[in-house]
Structures are given as structure tokens and as C-alpha cells.
Amino acid sequence: MQHSEPRLNLLNAFRQRMREALCLPGDPVGAPAGDPAGKFLPDAGAQWGQQGSAVVEFTFLAVLLMVPVVYFVVTVGQIQGGSFAVVGAADQAAKVFVARGGLSDAGAAAERAVFLALEDYGHALDKAKVEVSCDRADCLSAGAKVTVTVTLDVPLPLMPFGDTVG
């Protein structure tokens, strides 16, 4: 079927506007310049058929890779925060323990100091355990070595039943 010149120009103008609207290049790769009949059908490897797929691939891969990285960073932050809390609490408890005059209330005062320090760091008190030990029978004598061990269970972020696993 032969097209008249005005209809051919109108058809070419329509094709050009459609390519612009779809963000396609003027002539697909491999097409003869000004393919008036529009018989060229690009194969699957043609360049303009891949337009815009890089953005989709980048978005998909960014989400796929960034979610585990962000979770890892948050988890390490939680563990590091717990570590700082435990070190500060044990240090303060040892100072409070040796500052007390009697052995009877020194243990309770050290435990209160640990709980206060952990509370300042924002950790739950029911997840902590305190142990005080000495290298000799009289812990408050001169030269005695007092060791305060604080154990804290740090919950993993976004794990609702993390304390029941294991």
C-alpha cells in the first residue's frame, strides 16, 4: 500500500513524537536512517530497548545490599553500647564497694551502682547480673583486689523473640 507524501510526513511525525514521549532515541541502533516504511523491528539486543533499566537495577541492588549493611551497623552499635555500659557500671561498682565501711552493705551498694549506671545507658535491669569477688577473705583490707563482673544480655534490634532463641 503506497502512502501519499502528506500522509507519510504525518506518519513520520507521529513516530517521532512517540519516540520522544517514550524517551527513545530518534532512530534505533541498526535502523536505516529515516526508515520511512517503519519496517525495522529492533531485536532484543537493541540499545533503546534497555533504556531506564539501569535505574531499576540500581534501586533493586541498593536496597538488597543496603538493608543488611544498615542492620549490621545498628547491631554493632547496640553491642558496643552494651559494652560501654558494662565497663562503666563495673568500674563504678568497684569504687562504691571499696568506699563502703562495712562488708554487709558494700555488695548491695555495688549492685545499686551497677543498676544506676545501666539505667543511665538505657538498658533493662532485668537483663543484668552482678558478681563481686575478692582475692582474700577480708575484701576491704588494704591491698585487697576486688573484681566486679557485670553481665548484660543485649537484645538484637528488630528481633521480637531474640531472648528465647537458643
Structural description of this entry:
With 166 residues, this protein is mainly α. It is 49% helix and 8% strand. A two-stranded antiparallel ribbon has the order 1-2. The N and C termini lie far apart (77 Å). The model has no long low-confidence stretch (mean pLDDT 81). This is Flp pilus assembly protein TadG.
Give a nutshell description of this structure:
With 166 residues, the chain is mainly alpha-helical.
Report strand order across the widest sheet. Answer: 1-2
Terminal-residue CA separation: 77 Å
Strand content: 5-15%
**How many E-type strands?**
2
Mean pLDDT: 81
Largest sheet: 2 strands, antiparallel
Fraction of helical residues: 40-55%
Could you tell me the radius of gyration in angstroms? 36 Å
Order of helices and strands: HHHEE
By secondary-structure content and strand pairing, the structural class works out as mainly alpha
Protein name: Flp pilus assembly protein TadG
Transmembrane segments: 54-74
Keywords: Membrane, Transmembrane, Transmembrane helix
